[in-house]
Design brief:
- It is built from 20 helices and 10 strands.
- It is an alpha/beta fold and 581 residues long.
- The chain binds adenosine-5'-diphosphate.
- Adenosine-5'-diphosphate binds next to helix 13.
- This is ABC transporter ATP-binding protein.
Length: 581
């Protein structure tokens, strides 16, 4: 129930006028059926009298006018409040619920985003927002207020005519409750279990959309295979949903039958009472409508009641995601690297994995040093880089920056002092200026610095700073290598004391790569730089080489030292030597 309380509190906070208006409308609307019953009974009775020539003309007109006024006011109120519900509860509410979700994602530890369990939870929270389940819960649970009020008011009116009218109209709608409760729950469980499949579906779908993959799959001819895989997954998901939907429809049909039977029986009973002269014809007419109102109220009430566990389940998922532990922030201010980064006995495992990506790792990187981290694919280079920057906490051991565990620093300040160019860097369809200065937007108009970063990355004269890049909006399309250089320029532009390059040049020709790295090392003269690579081209340019193997450091030293040692580095160097001639 606490999810419900949170939803109410949020909506009253975000859209107070709409929320209050909705509650008022529900309360007023609840009294309409009872009022209509009383007025229509009077109207019919006076009409009957008029037909029999015992007219009391004024009263007849009065009832007729009242009848119309009630309908008119009810309609106008419903119209106005439906706008309030749509604009306030649904649109505004959903926008805020969505915003909260994305703000939460930004506060999670980066490692949490590698955790499949967290990603599934996020998927379910996303679904709760997308389906507007949270706003629907606000609106839906208001029937708890409205329905009892309608029922009590109507019951009071009906009971005045005959007590028999009550149990019959109530009993005829009970089967709804049972069916929706069972089916509603089942429906939700299917969706919940489907989260990983729906995520896979969304991933496959994204492959068809992304230009790079769409092109590759066409050229290499595996588009048919992937389409097949997508279709199969979609069919599986849909089949499960349809199976539940079918059961749902059948049980609802069954419930409706019961309700109609109940309605028929009620009319029969009140007709009998009328024929016996126990109620007037006016009461008979009004009761027929009153039963219908009562049944409709109960139907809506029970249907909502049945749907609530399902929606509440989504709401719980949503709040379970919002309540996840956020990244802990240290309080120590970070002035930039002063001395060294020191890894002591570090071991690290990705969430859900049994094997260690890094183990038993000791390493010191001194201020101003240029270090190359070398090793084959999967040897743990990227993971090491992420730990160096404090992105992931080690499972064992500690990463000290200037003697202080990295987690003790204020993370925003710490990250401002670090710059990372990832292997899978992003491509921004923005201006050339923005592409460089995104890493320090305060200097968006520092043209001299932007040009310098471009020059250092080997992109001199590529175009005007305000020229749009990328084909998406009709800008200049760059080659893969040029995008990579742009990512490096962005990394260099950031005023950081530490810069990490994680193979952003891997797709370039080895000689071009060496050229760019040479210029990079020159540009990063005053910084501490860590360059991850699986090629040896840059090794003569750096102060030290660290060779990784199976999540450990195999060797460490200068080019000359390692070559002389005749170990892993010497083997890699000899194998790749011919690329650099
Ligand atoms: P490298 O950068 O040297 O290619 P990585 O640091 O990327 O190596 O990977 C080291 C090991 O960790 C590999 O065995 C890889 O499969 C595993 N790994 C990397 N990223 C993840 C992840 N997000 N989740 C689970 N395992 C991962």
């Amino acid at each position: 129930m606490s999810s419900l309380r949170r939803i109410y509190a949020s909506i009253f906070k975000w859209a107070p006028a709409s929320a209050a208006a909705t509650v008022c409308q529900q309360l007023l609307g609840a009294l309409v059926p009872a009022a209509v019953t009383v007025v229509s009974a009077g109207l019919f009775d006076h009409a009957a009298k008029a037909i029999n020539g015992q007219a009391d003309g004024t009263k007849l007109y009065l009832y007729a006018a009242l009848y119309l006024i009630i309908y008119l006011i009810n309609d106008i109120l419903e119209y106005i409040f439906s706008i309030a519900v749509n604009a306030g509860i649904y649109e505004k509410g959903t926008a805020y619920f969505r915003m909260n979700l994305y703000e939460k994602v930004a506060k999670l530890p980066l490692l949490a985003l590698e955790d499949p369990e967290v990603l599934n939870r996020k998927e379910r929270a996303d679904k709760a927002v997308q389906d507007e389940s949270l706003s629907a819960l606000f609106n839906g649970t208001l029937v708890f207020l409205r329905a009892p009020l309608t029922a009590v008011a109507l019951a009071a009116v009906l009971a005045r005519y005959s007590v028999w009218l009550l149990p019959l109209s109530l009993l005829s709608v009970l089967p709804y409750l049972v069916a929706r409760l069972i089916r509603g729950k089942e429906f939700f469980h299917v969706r919940r279990a489907q989260a990983p499949e729906t995520r896979r579906l969304a991933y496959l779908w994204s492959l068809f959309h992304t230009r790079q993959t769409a092109k590759e799959m066409r050229v290499a001819g595996f588009d048919g295979y992937l389409t097949g895989k997508w279709t199969a997954t979609r069919d599986k998901v849909n089949e499960e949903l349809w199976a539940v939907g079918k059961k749902d429809a059948i049980s609802l049909l069954f419930c409706d039958l019961f309700r109609i039977l109940g309605y028929g029986a009620s009319i029969g009973l009140v007709l009998m009472l009328a024929l016996r002269g126990q109620v007037t014809m006016g009461v008979f007419g009004a009761s027929v409508t009153a039963f219908l109102s009562m049944q409709m109220t109960m139907k809506v009430f029970l249907q909502s009641l049945g749907r609530i566990p399902e929606q509440l389940g989504y709401a719980k998922d949503y709040y379970a995601f919002l309540d996840q532990k956020e990244e802990e922030n240290g309080s120590t201010a970070y002035p930039g690297l002063q001395m060294d980064i020191r890894l002591e006995g570090v071991a690290f495992r990705y969430p859900g994995q049994t094997g260690y990506a890094l183990s038993n790792l000791d390493l010191v990187i001194r201020k101003g040093e240029k270090v190359a981290v070398l090793g084959e694919n999967g040897s743990g280079k990227t993971t090491l880089g992420r730990l160096l920057l404090g992105f992931y906490p080690p499972e064992e051991g500690e990463v000290f920056v200037d003697g202080v565990p990295v987690s003790h620093y204020d993370q925003t300040g710490f990250r401002r002092q670090a710059s990372a160019v990832a292997q899978q860097f992003a491509v921004y369809n923005l201006s050339l200026r923005e592409n460089v200065a995104l890493s320090d937007t305060e200097r968006l108009h520092a043209d001299g610095d932007i040009m310098e970063a471009l020059r250092q990355a080997g992109l001199e004269g590529i175009g005007g700073l305000d020229e749009p890049m990328g084909r998406e909006f009709g800008g200049r399309e760059l080659s893969g290598g040029q995008w990579q250089k742009l990512a490096i320029a962005r990394g260099l532009f950031r005023p950081s004391s530490l810069i990490l390059l994680d193979e952003p040049t891997a797709a370039l020709d080895p000689l071009v790569e060496t050229d760019i790295l040479r210029s990079f090392i020159h540009a990063a003269q005053d910084k501490t730089a860590v360059i991850i690579s699986h090629r040896v081209g840059l090794c003569k340019l750096v102060d030290r080489i660290v060779v990784m193997k199976d999540g450990r450091i195999a060797e460490s030293g200068s080019h000359q030292e390692l070559l002389a040692a005749g170990g892993e580095y010497a083997r890699l160097y000899t194998a790749q030597e011919q690329w650099y001639r």
